[in-house]
Design goal:
Elements: H1 5-20, E1 24-31, H2 35-42, H3 52-56, H4 59-67, E2 72-77, E3 92-95, E4 99-100, E5 115-116, H5 119-131, E6 137-139, H6 146-156, E7 166-171, H7 181-196, E8 203-209, H8 226-238, H9 240-243, H10 248-255, H11 263-270, E9 282-289, E10 297-303
Parallel strand pairs: 1-8, 2-7, 2-8, 3-6
Antiparallel strand pairs: 1-10, 3-7, 4-5, 9-10
Length: 305
């Protein structure tokens, strides 16, 4: 017996209303978080010949974020010995506090706004992800350094207050052992599942930061590998599941000792929609430039379709 058309319509309306009442990840942003970029911003050097090409590459992103300001940003970054030291090294740490102060990295805190958190969504994500067998360190008090504030400055400029709450998610990519790209990618999938189960109609963006190719010490200090970086961006867009299988040694060999930061981009990519097929995210902007303080700057925005 056929189901009456009005019953089908009612069910569809109920499903649509339920979906609209839940949180969803609308886009992901990927960017380097070079500390010298923050210093250039803070000291008014954006228009200087060295820095002007870098900041020009983010102008489309600033226009995009004004039109697509989220309700919450889940920002994946690595701490640079400000919140954590060699005394305590969490592999994954989620900030569940109501606010996070800019860190003093040796020359005073950056003159940027206090980062407001979203404790309810952060606690929900922690609960869900831990129940999915990912061990997270829950942090109720920590300062946030350039790894988090430089990406915010690149997209939002220098506002009196950041336009939305931010959930900091710190990943250890400094002291070995560091998490594999595969684990980071699967963690992103678990985060996507957690966000989709949060019962508030929030538009959430997930940002992956760090990289691209660079090495800060040793005989290869100053290494930049354009070919590796561009191939990484191509595969991050088109085949992230395969990219997630890349072993650590490939990052170190091809992208330098600090190139391992790129595994954090896989968390953000795993949190997006289908990795292939009609649900593949749309590229809203892509940018690449070298050098910026002996570092390759990469940037990408993907929108869920």
């Amino acid at each position: 017996m056929a189901t009456p058309r009005h019953t089908v319509s009612r069910r569809a309306a109920l499903v649509a209303r339920e979906v609209n009442d839940m949180a969803r990840i609308t886009a992901s942003v990927y960017t380097s978080h070079v500390p010298a970029i923050g210093a250039a911003l803070d000291s008014g050097k954006c228009g200087e010949p060295y820095w002007q090409p870098v900041f020009k590459g983010y102008e489309p992103s600033q226009a995009w974020i004004r039109a697509n300001t989220p309700d919450v940003i889940f920002l994946v970054y690595n701490d640079h010995a400000t919140a954590f030291s060699l005394d305590l090294i969490p592999t994954f740490a989620i900030g569940c506090a109501a606010e996070f102060q800019p860190a003093d990295e040796g020359w005073g805190p950056r003159p940027v706004p206090v980062v407001k958190g979203h404790p309810e969504l952060a606690a929900h994500i922690a609960q869900s992800v831990i129940q999915d067998d990912f061990d997270l360190t829950i942090v109720n008090k920590m300062d946030v350094d350039h790894g988090l504030t430089v990406p915010l400055s690149l997209l939002f400029g220098q506002p009196a207050a950041w336009p939305c709450p931010v959930i900091p998610f710190a990943v250890n990519v400094v002291q070995y052992p560091v998490p594999s790209g595969r684990r980071c990618f699967n963690l992103g999938r678990a985060i996507r599942k957690a966000v989709a189960a949060f019962d508030q109609p929030l538009k959430v963006q997930i940002w992956g930061t760090g990289g691209m190719s660079h090495q800060l010490q040793g005989p290869r200090a100053g290494l930049i590998n354009r070919e590796f970086d561009q191939a990484f961006l191509d595969q991050l867009i088109a085949d992230p599941a395969a990219l997630a299988q890349k072993p650590h040694i490939d990052y170190v060999r091809e992208a330098g000792s600090e190139g391992i930061e790129l595994v954090m981009w896989l968390i953000a990519r795993g949190a997006m929609g289908d990795e292939s097929g009609p649900g593949t995210p749309r590229v809203a902007h892509r940018f690449y430039h070298v050098p910026a303080s002996n570092t390759a700057v990469g940037h990408l925005i993907l929108e869920n379709t």
